[in-house]
Structures are given as structure tokens and as C-alpha cells.
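Q: My collaborator sent me two sequences in one message, no labels, and asked for predicted structures for both. Can we handle them in order? The first one she listed is below.
A: Yes, handling them in the order given. First sequence, followed by its C-alpha cells:
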Amino acid sequence: MEENQPQSGPITLVISEVVDPSKLAAYEAWTKGINHDARQFEGFLGVEVIRPRDHDHPEYVVIVKFDTYDHLRRWLISPTYRDWMDQSYGLIAARSQQYLPNGLELWFTLPQARSRGGAPLPPPPYYKQVVLGVLAVYPLILLANVVLGPLLGGLPSLLGLFISVIFVSALLTYPVMPWLSKGLGFWLYPKTRRP
């Protein structure tokens, strides 16, 4: 069945963790330990920790990459991972996770839903990603021509194109693609259940 097939291609797990301000040193040590052990698992591609700027609300963002969803899942269900999660109790005030398959899916608003088997949703089929991309990009290019065309007429063509690309990319990333992917969620993710 389609939903039981392993995810092919790289996948990113983005974890947001709000840390108890009095336990920052312990959390930093914990992060080094869990990331060291993740590196030992098959398919591990890398990890990046984005540290907070606001020490009154220390929210860390941890970005973990594996080469396939199956390899990521093996890490997440391993006794090693569970042991590290047990050690995190008391350090972390709040945690959220989001799976982001690489590619256009990074622009999507992923539904807070799972497949019937309980696994995180796989990305939509490639053709649906292409259709969504066309539905988002084509109107934005038309809008860029109408809005920016008169302003960019005197500039060299490559510079004008560069400014148009910035305009389209900014609107595509937010609000267009999240809004469109949420509005078409019934079509992109037809086999979902709410948690």
C-alpha cells in the first residue's frame, strides 16, 4: 500500500525546543550528546542547532537531516533516542517537531495530521508539487510584471529580472505557498487523520 512505502529522498526534522532558562548549560551538554549519537546511525546527513538570541525565552531550533524517512524513523524509534528523550525531561519546557521532505515541500504548510498508520505524512506526489508550483508562480510573475514593469523599465534587463525574482520569491515563501498548500490540503494529503 502506498502509505507504507518508505520515504525516498532526504528528509529534515525541525525541532523547536523552549528550554528552562536555569538549565541552559545542561541542555547544551545534552544537545552535544544526542547529536553525537545521531551521527552513528545509518543515513545521518547532518545536524544544525540554532541558538536563541533572547535569553529570557531560550528557544532552540534543531535541524536534523537523514537521507531517507526510513533511516530517520529508525533513529527516532531506537532505544538510544528514547534514552536521550528521557534525559531531556526537566530541561525542556516545550517541544514541537515538523518533518520537511526536501524540495518544494519546504514551502508548504504541513497539516497537523498523520497517515492511518500513525507515521508522519509523506510528501505529495511530484506531479502535485509541480501543479502547486505553477498555480503559485504563474500569477506572481504576472503580478510582478504589472507592479514592477513600469518601475524597472529603465534598468538593465538582468537587474530587472533579479528584482522581479526577489519579489516573486518573497511572496511565494509567505503568504502564497503556505496559503495555497493549506487551501489545497485536501488534494495534497487526501489520506490523513487528525491527531
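Q: And the one she listed second?
A: Here it is, processed independently of the first:
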Amino acid sequence: MKTRIALLLFLITITSFSCTTKINESEIEKGDSRFEVNNLLDNWHKDAAETNLNDYFSLMHDDFVFIGTDGTENWDKESFYEFCKPYFEQGRAWDFKVLERNIYFNNNEDFAWFDEILDTDLGPCRGTGVIENIDGEWLLHQYVLSMLVDNDDVREVLELKFERDSVLLSNF
């Protein structure tokens, strides 16, 4: 699976791309790839906030991978489903609000990758990912959630993380 993701990222990298920054929904029309990708991501976040488990997972490709903020969080779709299910069943999933989103496409506009700044219960976070259009349907292949740390605070954060990072690194 990691080979497939690496190949996917490599293919995206070697193709030329066009760029859309700071999506302004009033500037894009339904049917436009930017609209479709933006809509998919908005719906995905909305489905989590409204704890719509089946809808949330229907927007993910079978080879979907979620990489979370914890060093151990690298889940395939099935593992991520098992993690999410209890939260969704209790009506307590997460509610990420998009503050800014950048979307990029290859020339054929059948692959997109994006980054977004989110307002979350963890504070401001960054989400990044890869999406593919398969037979007219956009599906997420990968999503990476990371916490934002100001450069001025990095030393302090590193000191807090040192012991746990040492344990994590010993597992490799």
C-alpha cells in the first residue's frame, strides 16, 4: 500500500500542474474541478461534524490512508474506520472549520492535492491530501493532519516531546 501511495505522489510530482489558491466559492462554478474538490472536502468535514459515518467513508478510496498528529497514527481505511466508529456512534466526532484552502491539479485535472488551515479542537491545524477523479467521482486517497507550531515555540515543544519521541524512535 505504501508503494501505491509513493507511486501516486511521484506521478503527481512529475506532471505539470495548475494552481488555485485561497478558494473563493463565488469565483468557481459547479462542474469546475475546483468546485468539485472543494465540495468534496467541505462535505467530508461536514460529515465528520454531523457524525455521518457512512457518508464520511464513502468519500474515501479503498486505498485511503489517514496520517494523524500522533506518530503512531498511520491508518489504512479499515483501521481508520475502526478508530472513528465509536466516536461517530456516540455523536462526538470532530468539527474542523476550514480557514484557508489551496488546491492543485495535474494537467488532466484527474488528480488533485491540497493543503488547508483548519480551526479544530486541537487549535489551528494543517490538513493535506491527495484526491483522484475516477470515472467522474472524486475520492480521497490520503489525508494528513498536523498541528501547527510557531517557529519561536519549537524548542519548548521539542523539550516536551523528547521522552515520547525517544520511545517512538526506538520502535523503528
